[in-house]
Specification:
This protein is of the alpha+beta class. The radius of gyration is 50 Å and the shape is elongated. Belongs to the cullin family. InterPro entries: APC_su10/DOC_dom (IPR004939), ARM-type_fold (IPR016024), ARM_CUL7_CUL9 (IPR056405), CPH_domain (IPR021097), CUL7/CUL9_N (IPR055486), Cullin (IPR045093), Cullin_homology (IPR016158), Cullin_homology_sf (IPR036317). One of its GO terms (biological process) is ubiquitin-dependent protein catabolic process.
């Protein structure tokens, strides 16, 4: 054999614990494309079967899949089946080794002996006809059987005389001869499946074989067939109750099945290598294959038709017409509501909404909405419920009646309950009156849109779906339909119609062919031409009108069920159903013909009113036919010629016969009817034609009558007589009775009637003897059904491989039945595991003995009785019924409550409560549950008439209808998964060898997915089956492909990554639609959109939640909130690949352009192009946008620290320039805003990265200069709101917050000054009153007057002296410039150098100095209140930072605080040297020169003259006559922004601090070993080590803007850096635990104590800047020279 256990390493996962292995090469053929194909047997093994030894796994061959594979697929999946030259090793011929052991001469002698033995056996068999077979005949047959077991002699036994011999032996009445024939057949069939099938097929196709075979001979052949097919199609239908099929029908099914398998083998053999079997030309081979395909399709259609009838599936179809499946994507998971991604043909649900009234979503709060509803709602308006509330559910509609002040306040008449119920205002949605309501399509739920102020960005949702057809369902492309083809039937439709034409016999067949010839120009029609006809639709309609009158009942039912009739039939075109109408129409002429035959002898008679007549009166003409038959049987001496026409009619219309037999299952009160029916049936058994009636279909009624304890003894005796007679005439029905359990039923009947039933014992023995045959019949039914399913799956596989249509008639009908299943129901013992009762457990069996005379009686207190059912896993109860009896009086239950739970301790969910009427006998407790409850408990709460104990007569449980769908789904999914995983591996192999073949993947996938979509739309009946197929196909084909094309190779590049790189490179060239780049980009886009077509599925809600508790105090049901599912593995792999591509692109760009002057604009443009490419390739799905951001972040993380610091500084500088440029206004300002917005979108990537720390550092510096230099604006807050996550320490946000706090302090300071002014004015008023009172006193004594004056002078002096001290605290409105003080905290503002300290006493004028002193006093007093501020008292320190506005003539100069001081200082001096200014201010030369440079520019008011004896030069006011310049308007002289450089010492110090933190982290983690440390503990330990030492060097301490401060954000940033480098690792089971991973060399700078010699922390410092404003110029110089006055 070619394939054994050595091929086991090629395993394909088929499901949980299941794998498939290539085992053996069976055969090969030439495919439709001309390339060879090989049929491989794949073994299916379970996980527990994969032992080391191969001997234990040989039995696994019973479960296998046969799969045709191409050369490429074998090369990719089964490369050990290839030879050294790379070619597939053909089927092994090792089996011929045994033949080689026999000499040719010996073999020839043995062949001669066999031929002579065959001649002798035939002669001896003819001589012993009618006598006991002689011993020589048996010996001859025994020797032939021995020769038959020798495989080289198999060819001799294919002689036709052997078949004749076997036929004579099988039809012999002697058992030994029949047994010997079976032995010979078994010996011949023991060699290979082909020989076995050929023998069985040859025997089954012998003419009139059924007439020659008796029951035993037929069973022998059936047993051989069962043995032959058991290993071929090992399929289990456990739990599914298959119908009882008699041997006659089984043998017919066997014949059909053998014929189909033979034709299938011929088809495969005809496709073998050309010239291997014959020398025919290609055209002859093609014609032969077409003939075989037509014959196979017709035979398969016949097999399906008979199998459907044998399985009784047509019963269900006659009761319910099939519904058309909605045409939607089978690969996209279906949600509860329609989404926008579905094709336009799918109808979206509509809801009713109001045109006038506002919904609740438009209101900010529930209270506001409740007020709106209360004010708007009027009596008579329609409302809808928005929330579940007690007895009212969300979505219920009703009419508003009234409201009051109670709780709840609103009364609504609800349509769902038919009564009023009170609810709350906020729970209602106003629909209004009917004229205000409209039907609108429900929109998708708004997802994820986040608007960030004026610069907000709306994020797309995870479930984005494009609206265009190409990307919505990329594999369903609109195809141009040929107008000529659309007017003709397809080949599948025509072959289905041709099937019924071939069913016709004789004249009917010729008449239909005549219709065809008349419409086809009289062309001669043979089988070859018929198969290739192009039939117009009009001709098909004519044929469909002519066929129903010429078909029998069975074929007519098939015609009405087939697809071609439903599509082109007259009733389908007219728009009304056809099934009952045509059957009745066909029955009319048949009834008329039968009536005419009867009328020739006697006139029509009137039927008496008997039970039989009442039973059949509603059956129409067939019922009257049966009444005539009953009358003929009742006459004396009925003639066979009179009865035969009625029986033939009943064969065509068996409904009255089945109704007659099923009447035996009616209650026992119908004794006269039962006796009449049994009498008629007893008489019918004697007629041979009656045995062809479907007795087996109504044997259940006979068994129900036999089991019923109420059946009358006379009826029971007649029933046993009838069954004994029927089983004696045809032992097939004894087998049927055995399958139905008649043996136990007869035994119970004998026990009940004390053995006084005639022929009951004989009937029981007869049934018992058929036990072996019953098992054989069940096995045969299973094998035939399993074989048909395997052939159907094989046709589906050929359909996938060749893309040729499936032309088998009734193929969709068979699939519909397999997906819908059986009509049998699971009853009591199949549903529950055990039954427990509250008391008297020894009588619990009476609940399930199906005898209403017995009962279970409880014992205990009232209300404590219960019955507990332990259900089988997964059983959903369709009906739970309690049997009671009114005669039990007070023992009869009155109120029953049913509870459900997961265990006996959690039975707290009430499922139903029922009040039992005294006249009831059957109480239905539960119906159609949608949730599985492991435990069901029935509690009897109350009995009739106040009884204590209770009696229950029985318990009936109906479970779900077991269907074939789970079995077929498993097989369909296995075959689909194996087929597509093998194909995916082959395609992946092609892509691995040549990446350019990835461009063809889109068309390949489109073809495969379109094939599956069309197959599902054509053949699968419901969405569940279609979704199962689509899900399996997607997981088996697309998932492995995506995994393979996204896996990197040795160079670290994946095929899809390479393709996406090429797409990005040729993106610009693709703008020309006629270029090759455009075609290439189109293929890439179609591929990526196809791969992401299927969106991740949301977690479904439970099918049935627990019943709502009817209580006003029930809690919220949080289970109703569905959680959104995460992206599938396909999306995850694609996003990883896209992230890697983006990371490489960004890394290359940063490496090449990081030093460019226009780096930021170019990087933003590059990022924008990547964003557009992501949208083009994958749509605006959030997963790929997130991958884009992660890819950009990965590129930034690869930068060294100084390069990353340079990049972050460039971004901070760019944002600063754009914010300042936006103040210009106009078109230029709008352009700056647009550039700023694009930059901010790019900067968002910094969030969570190490680069965010340095970016915050530089942004903080530039923002501080902006705020203090030009002031704040709305744009600052908008920018921070958008890129706020990029600042780990939130320092910019704190800066804006401190500005707001400072403004609040300024307002309080203004109120404080007004209070001080009011106090001073009040003192002045009091002083004036005292002075006026002194003048009114007597001035008689001069001395006394002098004394008063002296005292007043002292007081005045004191007052004056006091006023001199408190003068600075006075506030005179309008006398001074407006001064605003900004109190800034050094915790967030970059103010660290002491050289910037301002001394107001020496550097500011007195009128400004007084305001500052007053503010200092105010701030000191505000700090004195402990309730306002806890902790150490803050002190003020004035700085030079700030800005001012000065008036200089007609100009308004905008200057800094340093420039203001310098200009005001020149008011008193004509000139001043720079050296003196440095000495007076204490500023650094750089800072002073930075302030002087704008003042001495062309726009400035000063001149700088250099003198030899004065270092630095002399400043003086520029004379207006020297140089003309504008004298009006605003002049901005604030020093320009000074930008930092990351390469300077400050950047290097930041790197040193980062390295020092890295060293601390590594040291601490090394000390804790593999155990690791929690991340929170690690941060605390690092901060503690940073404060206590070792610490950074002194240069690092002095250079950092915030000193040597370090916080948790800095530590976390370093931890992220070390995680990215691999130095630190997370624990898999505890991600919050960190440990040291690999050594890393970190440069540790020399460190020393942070605060050497300090005993404790320094008090926090608060720095200030000021902003000065003025309403006038009271201190301007009175001279003619121009001077500077403080304006702001």
């Amino acid at each position: 054999m070619v394939g054994e256990l050595r091929y086991r390493e090629f395993r394909v996962p088929l499901g949980p614990g299941l794998h498939a292995y290539p085992d053996e090469l069976i055969r090969q053929r030439v495919g439709h494309d001309g390339h060879p194909e090989y049929q491989i047997r794949w073994l299916i093994l379970r996980r527990g079967d994969e032992g080391e030894g191969g001997s234990s796994q040989v039995d696994c061959k019973a479960e296998h899949i046969l799969l045709w594979m191409s050369n490429d697929e074998i090369y990719a999946n089964c490369h050990k089946m290839l030879g050294e030259d790379g070619q597939v090793i053909g089927p092994s011929q090792e089996i011929t080794g045994e033949a080689g052991a026999l000499d040719k001469s010996v073999l020839g002698e043995m062949e001669t002996d066999v031929k002579s033995l065959i001649q002798r056996a035939l002669r001896q068999l003819e001589e012993c006809v009618g006598t006991i077979p002689p011993a020589p005949l048996l010996h001859t047959v025994h020797v032939l059987s021995a020769y038959a077991s020798i495989e080289p002699l198999t060819g001799v036994f294919k002689d036709p005389r052997v078949l004749d011999l076997l036929m004579h032996m099988l039809s012999s009445p002697d058992y030994q001869i029949r047994w010997s024939a079976g032995r010979m057949i078994q010996a011949l069939a023991s060699h290979d499946a082909g020989t076995r099938t050929q023998i069985l097929l040859s025997l089954s196709q012998q003419e009139a074989i059924e007439k020659h075979l008796d029951f035993d001979s037929r069973c022998a052949l059936l047993a051989l067939f069962a043995q032959a097919t058991l290993s071929e199609h090992p399929m289990s239908f456990e739990g599914i109750q298959l119908p009882q099929v008699p041997g006659r029908l089984l043998f017919s099914l066997v014949k059909r099945y053998l014929h189909v398998t033979s034709l299938l083998d011929q088809l495969n053999d005809s496709a073998a290598e050309p010239g291997a079997q014959n020398n025919s030309g290609p055209e002859e081979l093609s014609g032969e294959r077409d003939r075989l395909e037509l014959e196979f399709s017709m035979a398969m259609g016949t097999l399906i038709s008979e199998l459907v009838q044998a399985m009784r599936w047509d019963w269900a179809l006659s009761r319910q017409r099939p519904l058309a499946r909605s045409s939607c994507s089978i690969f996209q998971p279906q949600l509860a509501e329609a989404g926008p991604g579905l094709p336009p043909t799918r109808a979206q649900p509509s809801i009713r909404r109001s045109r006038r009234f506002r919904p609740r979503s438009e209101f900010a709060s529930g209270n506001t909405y409740a007020l709106y509803v209360r004010e708007t709602l009027q009596a008579g308006m329609r409302v809808r419920m928005l929330d579940d509330y007690e007895e009212v559910s969300a979505g219920d509609e009703g009419e508003f009646r009234q409201s009051n002040n109670g709780m709840p306040p609103v009364q609504v008449l609800w349509e769902s309950t038919g009564r009023t119920y009170w609810v709350h205002w906020h729970m209602l949605e106003i629909l209004g009156f009917e004229e205000d309501i409209e039907d609108v399509v429900e929109a998708n739920e708004y997802q994820g849109a986040v608007v960030s102020g004026a610069l907000g960005v709306a994020l797309p949702s995870w479930r984005w779906k494009p609206m265009t057809e190409l990307y919505a369902v990329p594999y369903v492309l609109p195809e141009d339909e040929d107008a000529e083809e659309s007017e003709h039937l397809t080949q599948a439709e025509w072959w289905e119609l041709l099937f019924f034409i071939k069913k016709l016999d004789g004249p009917d067949h010729q008449e239909v062919l005549q219709i065809l010839q008349e419409n086809l120009d009289g062309e001669i029609l043979d089988d070859e031409i018929l198969a290739e006809l192009a039939v117009p639709m009009e001709l098909a309609q004519d044929l469909l009108l002519a066929l129903p009158q010429r078909l029998d009942d069975s074929a007519l039912r098939d015609l009405l069920n087939c697809r071609v009739y439903r599509k082109y039939g007259p009733e389908a075109l007219a728009g009304h159903p056809a099934y009952p109408t045509l059957l009745e129409a066909q029955a009319q002429p048949q009834e008329s013909a039968g009536a005419a035959r009867v009328e020739g002898k006697e006139p029509p008679a009137q039927y008496p009113d008997t039970p039989l007549w009442r039973l059949l009166v509603d059956c129409g003409p067939p019922g009257r036919t049966f009444l005539d038959l009953e009358r003929a049987l009742s006459s004396e001496g009925p003639q066979e010629t009179e009865i035969k026409p009625f029986l033939l009619q009943l064969q065509r219309q068996p409904q009255p016969f089945l109704i007659l037999m099923q009447s035996l299952a009616t209650p026992a009160a119908n004794k006269p009817l039962h006796l009449t029916v049994l009498r008629i049936l007893m008489q019918l058994v004697d007629f041979p034609e009656a045995l062809l009636l479907p007795w087996h279909e109504a044997m259940d009624a006979c068994m129900a009558c036999l089991r019923s304890p109420d059946t009358d003894r006379e009826v029971l005796q007649e029933l046993i007589f009838f069954l004994h007679r029927l089983a004696s005439v045809s032992r097939d029905y004894a087998v049927v009775l055995n399958q139905l359990g008649a043996r136990d039923a007869i035994s119970k009947a004998l026990e009940k009637h004390l053995g006084k039933l005639e022929l009951a014992q004989e009937l029981r023995d007869m049934v018992f003897k058929c036990e072996k045959h019953a098992h054989l019949y069940r096995k045969l039914t299973t094998n035939i059904l399993g074989g048909c399913i395997q052939m159907v799956l094989g046709q589906i596989e050929d359909h996938r491989r060749t893309h040729r249509p499936i032309n088998i008639p009734f193929f969709d009908v068979f699939l519909r039945y397999l997906c819908q299943g059986s009509s049998m129901e699971v009853k009591e013992d199949k549903c529950w595991e055990k039954v427990e009762v509250s008391s008297n457990p020894h009588r619990a069996s009476k609940l399930t003995d199906r005898n209403p005379k017995t009962y279970w009686e409880s014992s205990g207190s009232a209300g404590s009785h219960y019955i507990t059912l332990h259900m089988h896993q997964g059983i959903l109860i369709r009906q739970l019924t309690l049997l009671v009896a009114g005669e039990d009086s007070s023992y009869m239950p009155a109120r029953v409550v049913v509870f459900g739970g997961d265990s006996t301790n959690s039975l707290n969910t009430e499922l139903n409560s029922v009040n039992v009427m005294p006249s009831a006998s059957r109480v239905i407790l539960l119906e159609n549950l949608t949730r599985f409850w492991p435990i069901i408990q029935i509690r009897i709460k109350r009995c009739q008439q106040g009884g204590i104990d209770t009696r229950i007569r029985g318990l009936e449980v109906l479970g779900p209808k077991p269907t074939f769908w789970p079995v077929f789904r498993e097989q369909l999914c296995r075959h689909t998964r194996l087929f597509y995983m093998v194909r995916a591996q082959a395609w992946s192999q092609d892509i691995a060898e040549d990446r350019r073949s990835l461009l063809h993947l889109s068309s390949r996938l489109n073809g495969a997915l379109r094939q599956e979509q069309n197959f599902a739309d054509r053949f699968l009946p419901d969405d569940e089956a279609a979704q199962a197929l689509g899900k399996t196909c997607w997981e088996a084909l697309v998932s492995p492909l995506v995994q393979n094309i996204t896996s990197p190779d040795e160079d670290g590049i994946s095929p899809l990554g390479w393709l996406l790189d090429q797409y990005l490179e040729c993106r610009e060239a693709a703008h020309n639609p006629q270029s090759r780049a455009a075609a290439f980009s189109s293929r890439v886009r179609r591929l990526t959109h196809l791969l992401v077509h299927v969106e991740p599925c949301e977690a479904p809600l439970p099918a049935a939640a627990a019943p709502r508790t009817k209580s006003r105090n029930r809690s919220h049901d949080w289970s109703s909130l569905a959680t959104r599912g995460l992206p599938s593995s396909i999306v995850r792999n694609l996003t990883r690949c896209w992230q890697a591509v983006v990371e490489e692109q960004v890394n290359n760009f940063l490496t090449s352009h990081w030093r460019d002057d226009d780096f930021v604009p170019r990087y933003c443009e590059h990022f924008h192009n990547l964003q557009k490419s992501s949208s083009e390739l994958f749509g605006p799905r959030a997963a790929f946008l997130l991958a884009l951001q992660n890819g950009c972040a990965g590129g930034l993380l690869k930068l060294p620290f100084l390069k990353a610091a340079h990049v972050s500084e460039q971004f901070a500088r760019h944002i600063d320039q754009r914010i300042q440029g936006s103040r210009i206004g106009g078109a230029r300002g709008m352009e700056m805003l647009a550039q700023l917005q694009r930059c901010l979108e790019t900067v968002l990537i910094f969030s969570g990265l190490e680069i965010a720390t340095t970016f915050e550092h530089y942004y903080q510096h530039y923002m501080a200069d902006r705020l203090l230099g030009v002031g704040s604006s709305w744009l600052e807050g908008a920018v921070l709101e958008q890129i706020g996550p990029c600042f780990p320490n939130r320092l910019p946000q704190q800066m804006l917050q401190s500005l707001s706090t400072s403004e609040e302090l300024q307002r309080q300071f203004h109120v404080y000054q007004l209070q001080r002014l009011d106090q001073e004015l009040l003192k002045l008023e009091d002083t004036e009153k005292k002075i006026q009172g002194g003048h009114e006193t007597s001035d008689k004594e001069h001395k006394g007057e002098k004394a008063e004056e002296a005292e007043g002078a002292v007081v005045t002096n004191v007052v004056e002296e006091e006023e001199e001290e408190e003068n600075e605290d006075l506030y005179y409105e309008g006398a001074m410039p407006e001064v605003s003080v900004l109190v800034l905290s050094p915790r967030c503002w970059p103010i660290a150098s002491i050289c910037h300290t301002l001394n107001p006493r020496t550097c500011l004028p007195s009128y400004l100095r007084g305001t500052l002193n007053r503010y200092s006093n105010f701030y000191s007093k505000s700090q004195s209140y402990p309730a306002l501020e806890q902790g150490p008292k803050r002190r003020l320190q004035w700085t030079w930072l700030g800005r001012a506005e000065l008036q200089f003539g007609d100009q308004t100069l905008h200057v800094s605080t340093v420039q203001m001081w310098l200009l005001l200082y020149l008011n008193d001096l004509q000139a001043v040297s720079v050296e003196s200014l440095l000495a007076l201010s204490g500023l650094s030369p750089d800072m002073l020169n930075q302030a002087i440079t704008p003042l001495t520019s062309l726009r400035g008011p000063l001149d700088l003259r250099e003198e030899n004896d004065v270092p630095g030069g002399v400043l003086k006011i520029r004379d207006a006559s020297e140089e003309p310049r504008p004298r009006r308007g605003n002049v901005w002289l604030i020093p320009p922004q000074v930008y930092l450089k990351a390469e300077d010492e400050e950047g290097r110090n930041l790197e040193k601090r980062r390295n020092l933190l890295n060293c601390l982290i590594v040291r601490i983690l090394k000390a804790h070993g593999d155990k690791g440390l929690h991340i929170d503990q690690l941060v605390c330990r690092v901060l503690d080590a940073w404060q206590k030492g070792p610490c950074p060097p002194r240069g690092l301490v002095s250079s950092l803007g915030r000193g040597s401060a370090c916080n948790s954000t800095d530590v976390l940033s370093c931890i992220l850096h070390l995680l990215g480098k691999g130095t630190v690792r997370r624990h898999d089971d505890q991600p919050q635990m960190l440990s040291y991973a690999v050594p890393m060399t970190v440069m540790e700078p020399h460190t020393e104590s942070l605060n050497p010699g300090s005993s404790g922390p320094n008090p926090p410092l608060t720095f200030h800047t000021l902003q000065i404003r003025s309403r006038g110029v009271p201190y301007a110089s009175c001279t003619g020279t121009q001077s500077f006055s403080t304006f702001r």
